Amino acid sequence: MDTRQEFIRFALAAGVLRFGEFKTKAGRLSPYFFNAGLFNDGALLGRLGEFYARTLLEAEAAGRLSCDMLFGPAYKGITLASATAVALAGMGRNLPFAFNRKEAKDHGEGGSLIGAPMKGKVVIIDDVISAGTSVRESVELIRAAGAEPSGVLIALDRQERGGDAVKPSEHSATQDVARLYGIPVIAIASLADLLAFLESGGAEAQALAEYRPQVQAYRERYGV
């Protein structure tokens, strides 16, 4: 099974991906909602890490990015990078990882970074990209430590223009990150994959058929 479609089914079964009416940070009414914080037990987190790991290895094999280590921005990224590192090790690829504190520590080991020393090409692991603030902070930390940010790996790309419900911007947050920092943003799955799932005709998709026109209309209005 395609990794992207398998991930959509996994997120649905875990209750992480839901359909209905949800208000986004931008004030838009979205027919679907993705909350990675609900991957909240050992089995779910372990399988999520495997999806991140598979997607990273596939991207490397396709020449889309290079990776010497992982970085998880506080707070969600810490767990995600850790789970991805464990999954990669299980697949025969043992990579170091690091993460940051929100506030720098002035005692003990000090500083704002924890984990392996920053070096080489660093892939940032996060759940989604909204305003791009987390990525900006991560890029600054990585470069300040003398390493090179080489990509961002997220769970879901909403492929949605920035701005608000009244004045959407020209590009999506992921496009803005790629353009601003010159690094690829790679997602396990995207809104296009979600629509493909809803149009697949399978039993799971048929049970959610009422939401397909709403998701399609949302994409036509706000998508990139």
How does the helix and strand content classify structurally?
A: alpha/beta
Distance between the termini: 27 Å
Can you tell me the overall shape? globular
- Report helical residue fraction: 40-55%
Radius of gyration: 18 Å
Question: Averaged pLDDT, please?
Answer: 91
Number of strands: 10
**How do the SSEs run, as a string of H and E?**
HEEHEHEEEHEEEHEHHH
Low-confidence region ranges: none
Number of helices: 8
**Beta-strand content estimate:** 25-35%
What composes the largest sheet? Answer: 6 strands, mixed
The largest beta-sheet arranges its strands as: 5-4-3-6-7-10
Topology:
Blueprint: H1 3-13, E1 17-23, E2 29-34, H2 42-61, E3 69-72, H3 76-90, E4 97-105, E5 111-115, E6 121-125, H4 133-144, E7 148-157, E8 161-163, E9 168-172, H5 173-181, E10 185-190, H6 191-198, H7 203-207, H8 212-222
Parallel strand pairs: 3-4, 3-6, 6-7, 7-10
Antiparallel strand pairs: 1-2, 4-5, 8-9
Helix pairs in contact: 2-3
What does this entry look like structurally?
With 224 residues, this protein is α/β, with parallel strands linked by helices. 41% of the residues lie in helices and 27% in strands. It is built from 8 helices and 10 strands. It has helices spanning 3-13, 42-61, 76-90, 133-144, 173-181, 191-198, 203-207, 212-222; strands at 17-23, 29-34, 69-72, 97-105, 111-115, 121-125, 148-157, 161-163, 168-172, 185-190. The strands form 3 sheets. A 6-stranded mixed sheet has the order 5-4-3-6-7-10, sandwiched between helices. It has a two-stranded antiparallel sheet with strand order 1-2. It has a two-stranded antiparallel sheet with strand order 8-9. A hairpin with a 5-residue loop joins strand 4 and strand 5 (111-115). Helix 2 (42-61) crosses helix 3. The two termini are 27 Å apart.
